[in-house]
Amino acid sequence: MSDSTHLVLSLSCPDKPGIVHAVTGALARRGGNITESKQFGDSDTGLFFMRVQVETTVPRLELEKDLEALAGDYAMEWSLDEVGRPMRTLIMVSKEGHCLTDLLFRARSQGLPIDVAGVVGNHEDLRAVAEFYGAPFHCIPVTRETKEAAEAELMALVESLGVELVVLARYMQILSPALCERLHGGVINIHHSFLPSFKGARPYAQAHERGVKLIGATAHYVTADLDEGPIIEQDVTRVAHEDSVAALRAKGQDVERRVLAQAVRWHTEHRVLMNGHRTVVFA
Amino acid sequence: MSDSTHLVLSLSCPDKPGIVHAVTGALARRGGNITESKQFGDSDTGLFFMRVQVETTVPRLELEKDLEALAGDYAMEWSLDEVGRPMRTLIMVSKEGHCLTDLLFRARSQGLPIDVAGVVGNHEDLRAVAEFYGAPFHCIPVTRETKEAAEAELMALVESLGVELVVLARYMQILSPALCERLHGGVINIHHSFLPSFKGARPYAQAHERGVKLIGATAHYVTADLDEGPIIEQDVTRVAHEDSVAALRAKGQDVERRVLAQAVRWHTEHRVLMNGHRTVVFA
Amino acid sequence: MSDSTHLVLSLSCPDKPGIVHAVTGALARRGGNITESKQFGDSDTGLFFMRVQVETTVPRLELEKDLEALAGDYAMEWSLDEVGRPMRTLIMVSKEGHCLTDLLFRARSQGLPIDVAGVVGNHEDLRAVAEFYGAPFHCIPVTRETKEAAEAELMALVESLGVELVVLARYMQILSPALCERLHGGVINIHHSFLPSFKGARPYAQAHERGVKLIGATAHYVTADLDEGPIIEQDVTRVAHEDSVAALRAKGQDVERRVLAQAVRWHTEHRVLMNGHRTVVFA
Amino acid sequence: MSDSTHLVLSLSCPDKPGIVHAVTGALARRGGNITESKQFGDSDTGLFFMRVQVETTVPRLELEKDLEALAGDYAMEWSLDEVGRPMRTLIMVSKEGHCLTDLLFRARSQGLPIDVAGVVGNHEDLRAVAEFYGAPFHCIPVTRETKEAAEAELMALVESLGVELVVLARYMQILSPALCERLHGGVINIHHSFLPSFKGARPYAQAHERGVKLIGATAHYVTADLDEGPIIEQDVTRVAHEDSVAALRAKGQDVERRVLAQAVRWHTEHRVLMNGHRTVVFA
């Protein structure tokens, strides 16, 4: 189909019969061809979730109008986007560069659909790598005194740059509850443990002390409740008695960058839907 | 829904717009509520695949009539079944019991939806375990001379017992092309290597000789082309230089039984659809 | 070597120069040939750990005398055993049979070096499977009132049967601190979570509630501090949003039995050494 | 130990009693303290392998003299190095930068002990990233006509730069048998399949065509026999029916870079020993 666009619709709503038929009807009436789709009804929460990719010759805006009417009937939360459209993303970092380097490399060479609007660091350490990949670097130091001003500066950037997604790529500051609220559902953090184990500070030291045989990392949406946000992705790697805390950190970095990149990819492909404080991931 | 049944419909057909809408329309007109569904269109083969679980108060047979009409319009291959209905299964074995024991245990205690119609062995070794789990054991020895008669006996069992699925749980005989053809799509084999590596005999000895660092197992549908049937599931486990061929075999058995059980579960839940010589697995 | 025995020596002691030389000297003077060995010095705890397999024509008892002298000089904790000698094992269960069935099958068919002295259940449910595999089954019910008497009965069994290892194969009772102390280092438990996450009761329900993307199991030595004993082995498996608590339990059982069997194998092969509240595992 | 050095000795020789005692005796006489050690005797090949890390105040060169005498007695192949000494490494690439970027990042930030003497590309594409990380880039194009000259240029670089290890980080040219011979044991390649499956060209297309459920990567020493060299490390990742060949390639790149980095780390830490056409890896 030469003039077709490839769109992705994702939605959630209270479950009742007929949703898929209604939605696919709206798509079919516009000649849409479904290429991939997944649905799930959660009997615990009574919510229904759907993600559908559709090829159509109808412009996205017209389809949006059709869907608006439908969304009202079913009390849907929904989004319609073009498949593969890079999402405007702000990456926040401190001093460790493994996640940042990985995201920038994947965006350039592996089709990770992010358009890096900028990199914000509370230290200068990672300016060079950001700029090497063509991403503007903003140093916004944070102290107890300047935290409020720093967050205001950050929000100004988010707005002026049209940021859709903020990624905390080993950013070692805690966002204020107000900021968490304001950016709700739009901030992904990577925590360097297999949550809920080893919350808070120095998880690798905690893991070493406990003598676990696997260490992990967790990507989650940021909420005001630290390390308690909805989990998007987790993975682990094997460690052994020989491994010092430093060795755990080095091995863990591999997991961190892989898990974060996976979560960012799924989010930008509209595969992650909120289900209370959990997520539905149509991987 | 007190009087509802939970049905699973799986289908494949040439891809064209409107399939999902048409199918879900047929379900919606009968008041069906979709609980889980996945679809996939393969641009390589031009085929469309769909699996949908639906809760409905309409009897399965009535829904089947609705679907028959639809199936004609879209040239569908399809099946409709009750979710969780145990499938009549014949398990074939030789001397090693790890896969058989595992399948029987899962059927009894872990909800693997198979109804073991019988166990066929070409040796007597595994009679006791079959009978412990209440499965009738049939010893059908096979030699070059008796192979044809043995296969006839097997087919007679398949028919008299109403067998829907045959599982080769480390059955060390090769089925004749005629039998493969006759049971096409209804026989799952576990091969003790990560195919296409190490086809044929003694895969663990081959793996040891090559010095690989992971060994695996492959569950696939049986076709006349040995070890070349459509793959349903594979997995691997790590091995080391200390591991003898015997150690590889012991480690590999864990992977074999896990992979086979997973493949059988997916098959009986109608999650596996043929896509040429590959499979679509709606896991 | 036709008349040789294959022995395994494992030891730990305060670290200082010359240990390996002294130990291998004692072995060399007896014509011993080392087939596999691992050593590790932990700079945190100042302890040194060693495991060595040796082929020798000298009887085990003579070698023991040589080692006793050495052990005094270096303040060693040590053991000498025959490679592959089955360890006298008591398995304790409640109602779920996946771990028990797995251990019994592996002991019979896969060379797991345990000699099952008996199976103790606080319910009758698993008598049949124990007896199928030839293991005497003892039902010792436990209530708050009978707990003390039940533990006395258990200890009497441990002593009369010459039990070297007790395996809690999903035994749903908590051992008293006194019993934990008495059997210190000789009891392995499988906990159905990836510790330290989800300690205590109903870990799969906890995992479902938190929305984790992997679930796990942990085999550890039992201490008076519940779920805090030294970890021997852990593993995880992937779960998804579709998975109910029951589905987590079914998927988790696969991990539980695999992790427990691995821990038991390593323990019986003298590969696990205590390093404070952590373990050294010479896998 | 303030003036101590931390050394690593690795060796292999025909197996016979007394090797460990003799080696550790040489170390003990110099006051060496063993921090980590592993040994293995292969009954198939009759070879014995040993790797030992030792802290000592004696200079490396003196210890080497002691070992030379011993090595003669036991017909050892051996090496003695400082723990953590970066190995002079030449990285060869074509156009895909995932492995190169990863190795350079790990060398800078994660303690991968390589000292990148230079990067050789047969295209200019990766000059920028090499130079960003401070590695001199040499473009040596290769055509059928210039292959001999190109290899001569490469060998000149290897010699002038004091290169100890050559890493083919997705270098898409085949080295001549003569060059393979000359650099024997000093060249590591990453092949983008789980060998021995899918040798040769376009492994991801082959994997897609076969419908496998896992794809992998293999790091191996380069020999004149293409894709048949001794395997150092392998790993896999899960793929699904939705994955196009391009998706397999993207997913596979993660495995490639992880497997290659692991193999390079083990090689530079002297953990990999040749055992015929297989390897012993003291991980």
Automatic annotation (TrEMBL), chains A, B, C, D:
Give the pathway listed in the UniProt entry for this protein: Purine metabolism; IMP biosynthesis via de novo pathway; formate from 10-formyl-5,6,7,8-tetrahydrofolate: step 1/1
The catalytic residues are: D227
Q: Quote the SUPFAM superfamilies the UniProt record gives.
A: ACT-like (SSF55021), Formyltransferase (SSF53328)
Q: What is its EC number?
A: 3.5.1.10
Q: Which residues form the ACT domain?
A: 8-85
CDD domains to which the protein is assigned, alphabetical: ACT_F4HF-DF, FMT_core_Formyl-FH4-Hydrolase_C
| Top-level taxonomic group | Bacteria
Keyword Hydrolase (UniProt): yes
Instruction: Write down the chemical reaction(s) this protein catalyses.
Output: (6R)-10-formyltetrahydrofolate + H2O = (6S)-5,6,7,8-tetrahydrofolate + formate + H(+)
- Give, as one word, the top-level EC class: hydrolase
Instruction: List the keywords (alphabetical).
Output: Hydrolase, One-carbon metabolism, Purine biosynthesis
GO terms, biological process: 'de novo' IMP biosynthetic process; one-carbon metabolic process
Q: Which InterPro entries match?
A: ACT-like_dom_sf, ACT_dom, Formyl-FH4-Hydrolase_C, Formyl_transf_N, Formyl_transf_N_sf, PurU, PurU_ACT
Does this UniProt record's set of keywords contain Hydrolase?
Answer: yes
GO MF annotations for this entry? formyltetrahydrofolate deformylase activity
**HAMAP family given for it?**
PurU
Q: What does this protein do?
A: Catalyzes the hydrolysis of 10-formyltetrahydrofolate (formyl-FH4) to formate and tetrahydrofolate (FH4).
- Family that this chain belongs to: Belongs to the PurU family.
Q: Which PANTHER family match?
A: FORMYLTETRAHYDROFOLATE DEFORMYLASE, FORMYLTETRAHYDROFOLATE DEFORMYLASE 2, MITOCHONDRIAL
What is the official name of this protein in its record? Formyltetrahydrofolate deformylase
